[in-house]
Amino acid sequence: MSTTANDRSTVEAAREKAPEGQRVAVVTGAARGIGEAIAQRLGRDGLHVIVADLPSMQEGVASTVEAITSAGGAATAAETDVTEEASVQALVETAVEAGGHLDVFVANAGIAQVQELIDYDAADFQKILDVNVTGVFNSYRQAARQMIAQGHGGKIIGAASIVAFRPFALLGPYSATKWAVRGLTQAAAMEWAEHGITVNAYGPGIVGTAMWDLIDEKLAAKHGQQRGEALEENARSIHLGRVSVPEDVAAMVSYLAGPDSDYVTGQTMLVDGGIQFS
User: Fold this and answer.
1) Could you confirm whether 174 is annotated as catalytic?
2) What CATH code is carried by the domain that includes residue 193?
3) pTM here?
4) Which one from 174, 202, 255, 263 is the annotated catalytic residue?
5) Among candidates 201, 117, 137, which has minimal Cα distance to 164?
6) Is residue 278 assigned to a domain?
7) Are residues 113 and 235 in the same domain?
8) Are residues 195 and 228 in the same domain?
9) How many CB atoms are closer than 10 A to CB 240?
10) Which pLDDT tens digits describe the chain residue by residue (278 residues)?
11) 93 three-state secondary structure
C-alpha cells in the first residue's frame, strides 16, 4: 500500500513544522527492533524523525513516535512500502512537508527468512529481494533526488549486516541481499559525493532480536540441540563477550548521521562485538 503526502488517512503529519535549523531524518522499518532504536536515538540527537513502516505496523509506529515525543523530541508517523518507489517518494515528500527539507535517510526496512537453500521457496526468494534490495534502491534514489535538489548534501544510510562480509548457513538469500546493499552503498557513494552526500551502511552482528531467536530454533532442530544452545554457540565468537542489543546499532547510525562522519563515505560499518574483522 502506498501513500501520498496529502493522504491524511495514511499519514499522521506533524502538528508544526520543524524549527528553523532542525535536521530532519527518515527511518524506515521503525516500528520495532533496530529501526525503533535508531528512530529513538536520532530523536534524542535532536532530529525531527519521520517514523515509517508498513500499514500493518502502525501500532508500533505510534509507540515509537510516542517514545520520541515523550522524551522531548519531534516525530511524525508515516506509512510506506519500500518496495514501491512511489510510496518512498511520498515518504520523502512527507519529510519535506514536516520539516522543510531532508537531511538523513536511514533505509532500515528489511526482512529475513531462516531456511536451507534446498528448501527455499522461489516466491519467498523474490520477496526478500524486493524488500532488501529493491527497497534500499528505492530509498537511496528518492533520498538522493531530494538532497540534490536542496543543494546542501545529506546523509544516506542503509541496513547491511555481518552477512555482507561473512554469510551464515540458513541465511543464504538474506546474505545475498546484504552483499548487494554493501555494493550499492559503495556505488552510490561514488556517484553522489560531488553533491555533498555521504552514503554508508551499518552491519549488525548477532543481535537479540526475533530473527536470531528463529535462527536458534532452526539450528537447534537441525542439530538436536536445546533452545538457546545454537545461539550460545554462535555467540562464543563475539570477542566482547555479549550478544548486541539494538541500541548498539543505533549508536553507530547516530555517528553516521552526524557531522563527525562527514569525511566517511562508501563504508559498511560492522557493529558485531568483534566477530568479523574487515
Assistant:
1) yes
2) 3.40.50.720
3) 0.91
4) 174
5) 201
6) no
7) no
8) no
9) 12
10) 344 444 433 334 433 455 668 999 999 999 999 999 999 999 999 999 999 999 999 999 999 999 999 999 999 999 999 999 999 999 999 999 999 999 999 999 999 998 999 999 999 999 999 999 999 999 999 999 999 999 999 999 999 999 999 998 889 999 999 999 999 999 999 999 999 999 999 999 998 877 778 878 887 888 788 888 878 888 899 999 999 999 999 999 999 999 999 999 999 999 999 999 97
11) helix
